[in-house]
Specification:
The protein has 267 residues and is of the alpha+beta class. It has two domains: 15-183, no CATH class; 187-266, 2-Layer Sandwich (Alpha-Beta Plaits), CATH 3.30.70.1110. It is built from eight helices and six strands. Strand 1 and strand 2 (51-52) form a beta hairpin. Helix 1 (14-39) packs antiparallel against helix 4 (124-138) and helix 3 runs parallel beside helix 5. The radius of gyration is 24 Å and the shape is elongated. The chain starts with 13 loop residues before the first helix and ends with a strand.
Length: 267
Amino acid sequence: MRAADLPPRAPLKRTDVAVGALVLLALCAWLGVAVGWAQDLPGAARSQGGDLVGEGWGGFGDLAFLGKAVLTLSLATVLGAAIAYHPRRYRTVDSLEAADAPKVFVVYAVVGAIIGIMVLEYGLVVGFVIFGIGGLTRFRTDLPAPDTGRLILITLIGLACGLDLPHLAVLAAAFGFVLFSLLDARATFHIAVKGLERDVVGQAAEAYRGVLERAGCRVLSERKSFAKEQVSFIFRAPYRLRRERLARRLEAEVAEGLRGVVDWEVD
């Protein structure tokens, strides 16, 4: 859905603000109690005198830990992608959100792996801290799903810095950078070709699909509507193929009698 299509937000009422403040205070109070309880558990954290102690910059010398962490994150990525990008899933793709959902699933698999690493490193206390931060992050945070995954990953990186685990923070940031470079290598587009003559909708669909495929795009979904006299496509384009260049190709290579007005939506 484009920003212009979104309905205006209703102003916050005083009751909403009051309830939000109470929920926020309750989460903070619960988090403090949970952390105190978890610190009393045997083996709950690496500590000295009851205080959490990080490894500091010396953690970069722990090559065994770093190597194991890379393998763990890679395994989570591969297994998450195996499920997220299941071939049969694309039969049900009908929106940009559905087309990009596998990226979100892979990011959450990596997030789960990082949480597991941190819990093993510091114990259950970190699990409660992360759970509390997650509640605070989701409360009144209006972000699309892909950006929410990035937000959680960035929050974990910041948490690792705060726990004096710079080696884990740098590793997670580097892995996330490479991961997002791969996931965003192909942009996802949704186009609706409108204003077609009813008797040429099928031919127009074939013509537009042909141009997209010759341009190196992968068509994920194609819908023809004879009643609305339009055809729509959801597709992934190569990284170097810009929208303006593709629009010019569609304008030039589709025959005039099959040409319609192209409405673009980009994720």
